[in-house]
Amino acid sequence: MVDYALKSWCEISQVALRANVRALRLGLNPKATFGVVVKSNAYGHGMVLCAKAFLNAGVDWLIVNSLDEVEELRQGGVDAPIYLCVQPAPFEAERVVESGARIALCSVEVATAIAAAARRQRRVVRCHVKVETGTNRQGVSDDELIGLVHSVHRLDGLALEGLTTHFADIEDTTDHRFAKGQIEALAAAVSAVRGLGIEVPMVHAANSAATLLWPETHGDLVRVGIAAYGLWPSRETYAAVLQRSGDAIELCPVLSWKARIAQIKEVPEGDYIGYGRTFRATHAMRIGIVPLGYYEGYDRRLSNLGHVLVEGIRAPVRGRVCMNMFMIDLTHVEGVCPGQVVTLMGQDGSEAVSAEMWGDWLSSIHYEAISRIHVNQVRLLRTQEGALCALEDLVSDE
Q1: Among the three residues 189, 222, 245, which one is the final residue of a domain in this structure?
Q2: For the chain, N or C: smaller number of CB within 10 Å?
Q3: Digits of tens for pLDDT over the chain (398 positions)?
Q4: Distances, alpha carbon 281 to alpha carbons 263, 275, 287, in Å
Q5: Which CA distances in Å does 295 have to 203, 292, 298, 394, 396?
Q6: What are the beta bridge partners of residue 307?
Q7: pTM summary value
Q8: CB neighbours (10 Å) of residue 97?
Q9: Same-domain check for residues 214 and 323
Q10: Is position 18 within any domain?
């Protein structure tokens, strides 16, 4: 096998990222804080790298899913406001205070633990009480809401900064009656709290779909996720936006995933390819070995189904995707040599393999396709003109 410095990498386009931020910002309520979700390694794009790029492009807040992510951003030099949108555990209280993060809150027990830690550190933690409006995931019911708000209001070390909720099905349909009911439920919760004479500085619910669909949901903060990375939340959202306004903003995919062909083999007619002998050559074939597999995030469900781009030509996957490699048919692609670049996701010439296409292949959604790009053994590589090379996976000497 040829020993190349790079086995695989992702390119993150600063041009596309800035264009998405600009387009989304133009549609915002001018009073709304612009938050972007960078959880789960920025949906597979590289969290610290993208966080800094988003902030440089004009984003106000970063939104994450875990305290570990808050700490990784802080250690990476990010000092911008960070909202931890999942309630932390009581045993994380000291770290929460040290991190300076805002937090989602739906438990008196957690509120009490964090308030005590904040007093010990002589700091104040800003809290956003999460209201249950129909998703039945995180959140407090109407019966619990007032008690929790009173606790936050009276506990030294805490400050009530906002009330929030999360939509259940806004991306999944063009019938948004349920989502509108959730908006009404959140508004009722806000009225109940303000009726007690307690100030609620921020009210927010808008994810990517709501941000694109309804300016009236923008409130005091939008929590834009997948749209910031240049992908529509769903076909239904795109259709609903067109139906509503007759036009839709252009979103530019930020990520391209590439690799190098490690080896090329001739396969005689009648021979099998890969584990389980799931593919048999019906003619003499030339196959390329791509040195990554389901461990790195190239899903096993793409076996004998997906395709990549080589020299702007589609090359289908042949045989089962292995843990650390998969095979592609190069019989119809002339002049390919080991070391040649393969595009797993992104554009090559006039052809493209999109995240949405991956979602269809996987009988899933594009969120899964991008967020499962495996980055446990990657690092920032270098800055390129017009793009940041975010993810590097080095070939071993084996």
Answers
A1: 245
A2: C
A3: 334 567 888 888 888 999 999 999 999 988 999 999 999 999 999 999 999 999 999 999 999 999 999 999 999 999 999 999 999 999 999 999 999 999 999 999 999 999 999 999 999 999 999 999 989 998 999 899 999 999 999 999 999 999 999 999 888 888 889 999 999 999 999 999 999 999 999 999 999 999 999 998 999 999 999 999 999 999 999 999 998 888 888 999 999 999 999 999 999 999 999 999 999 999 999 999 999 999 999 999 999 999 999 999 999 999 999 999 999 999 999 999 999 999 999 999 999 999 999 999 999 999 999 999 974 433 333 334 444 444 444 333 33
A4: 18, 14, 10
A5: 40, 7, 7, 14, 15
A6: 316
A7: 0.91
A8: 23
A9: no
A10: no
Same domain membership, residue 385 and residue 239 = no
Contact 156, 117 (CB under 8 A): no
Range of the domain at 302: 254-394
CATH number, domain at 359? 2.40.37.10
Output the CA–CA distances (angstroms, integers) from residue 18 to 197, 228, 230, in the order listed: 41, 9, 10
Amino acid of residue 342: V
